[in-house]
Design goal:
The complex is a heterodimer.
Chain A lengths: L16 E3 L13 E7 L5 E7 L15 H9 L2
Antiparallel strand pairs in A: 1-2, 2-3
Chain B lengths: L1 E6 L4 E6 L35 E5 L22 E3 L3 E6 L13 H19 L6 E8 L11 E7 L4 H17 L3 H12 L3 E4 L3 E4 L10 E5 L11 H19 L10 E6 L14 E5 L2 E3 L2 E2 L4 H4 L10 H18 L1
Antiparallel strand pairs in B: 1-2, 1-4, 3-5, 5-7, 6-7, 6-11, 8-9, 9-10, 10-12, 11-12, 13-14
Classes of the chains: A alpha+beta, B alpha+beta.
Chain lengths: ~80, ~325
């Protein structure tokens, strides 16, 4: 195994940064997945996965616009 | 200390990982290492005040990269090699309480997408030959943290049981020209007595050959090898099917929820070979044989190797079908 994009950041670098989501998540233009790199307090790799649609939204709402678009629509009213 | 020791009698690797003895054991909720880190509070594994879904490298891994050199020298009879690989923890939700069964469908769907991401990224690492995504649920299984989470092992070899399954599937493919799992799926659907639930893309059943009383297998109807080949609609269906089975378990009469299980996703190995014989499926192994009674692996199973199932899959599937109906009614 070689060093690669999934190797941990140094222990002193807990800041989060955008990581490559790669080819793994095509097909969701309305609900893209964002992957951010971070680290545990002792420096192990930690990945934060977030989505445009809330993971806790009511069922059947998956086809609604993403939360940020809803905000824009509401602000535009 | 962590290393691979070859068992020449069974022809398989044993992972020694003595540091795992020290892992955190059922901490109180205020000290859960999988919760977000609250301002001024206990520093958890996740230094953020909230999150959606996270994965991180296991603090007590069976495999790690770079792996330490084996503490013992290998011999011709007893080869050893570094336990080089990755072990990750996937935390499903920032909320301490609840299980996968309790999560909204969108969250489980997002989890499936995270699983796919990790399968593809970990499987692409040089030396990783197999990615096993799994969940242990319930203290009777040996879970040491109650916060809803699963794990991923990126193996430097194809583990023993998936290896046996693939070998049998390859032999079936060579003999008949057909996929073993497609044939099993067709046979189970034609019989119908052991079917638990169906959707457009997936079928769940307690198979004819089940070893555990409430053992459920979920097969993709299409012959595909991994999460990577699912369409967006199919992976949402997979999320729904996995959650449905977990919810049905929680509604089995006489059992106190949450119902414990072991769950594993079986996918195409990542060793570079085509593995046309691989067929994506999920297997659940609940440890209960009846309310209040665990099925232990005693001498006949641990020593003899063949399971003794005290129940009929046809009867247990009927129980689970009723529980599936109750779970669907409650949705």
């Amino acid at each position: 195994m070689s060093s690669d994009a999934t190797n941990p950041r140094p222990a002193a670098a807990p800041a989060r940064g955008v990581a490559n989501s790669g080819q793994a998540d095509e097909g969701y233009p309305d609900d893209p997945m964002r992957v951010e790199r971070g680290s545990t307090p002792d420096g192990r790799l930690l990945l934060y996965f977030t989505f445009a649609h809330s993971s806790d939204e009511p069922e059947g709402a998956a086809d609604a616009p993403p939360a940020d678009q809803q905000d824009q629509q509401e602000r535009g009213r | 200390m962590s290393e691979l020791r070859w068992n020449p009698v069974l022809g398989e690797w044993v992972i020694t990982a003595t540091h795992r003895q020290e892992r955190t054991f059922l901490p109180p909720a205020d000290y859960c290492p999988l919760c977000p880190t609250k301002p001024g509070g206990f520093p958890t594994e996740i230094p953020a005040s909230t999150y959606d879904i996270v994965s991180f490298e296991n603090k007590f891994p069976a495999f790690q990269h770079p792996a330490p050199e084996p503490a013992v020298a290998g011999t011709e009879l007893y080869p050893v090699r570094p336990a080089d690989g990755k072990c990750e923890v996937v935390v499903y939700t920032p909320v301490h309480t609840g299980t996968l069964a309790d999560q909204p469908l969108n969250r489980v769907h997002h989890l499936v997408r995270v699983w796919r991401h990790r399968y593809e990224h970990l499987g692409a690492l040089p030396g990783v030959e197999y990615v096993l995504i799994f969940e242990n649920k319930g203290t009777v299984i040996g879970v040491t943290l109650e916060h809803a989470h699963g794990q991923i092992y990126a193996y430097p070899f194809i583990p023993a049981l998936p290896g046996r399954k693939l070998a049998n599937a390859a032999a079936h493919l060579q003999r008949t020209g057909r996929c073993l799992f497609c044939d099993i799926l067709a046979t189970e659907r034609a019989d119908g007595r052991r079917i638990v639930a169906e959707s457009d893309a997936f079928v769940a059943a307690i198979p004819f050959y089940a070893r555990w009383p409430y053992e459920v297998h979920v097969w993709s109807r299409r012959h595909l090898g991994s999460l990577s080949e699912l369409t967006p609609g199919e992976d949402r269906e997979l999320a729904a099917m996995i959650r449905l089975i977990a919810r049905a378990y929680d509604r089995l009469p006489g059992f106190e929820p949450p119902f414990p299980y072991m769950m594993a996703l079986f996918q195409r190995p990542t060793d570079g070979a085509p593995h046309d014989e691989a067929h994506f499926h999920v297997e659940f192994y609940p440890p209960f044989r009846r309310p209040g009674r665990l099925k232990y692996l005693a001498t006949a199973e641990a020593g003899g190797g063949n399971f003794i199932n005290d129940t009929l899959p046809e009867e247990k599937a009927a129980e689970l079908r009723a529980a599936v109906a109750a779970a669907r009614e409650a949705e």
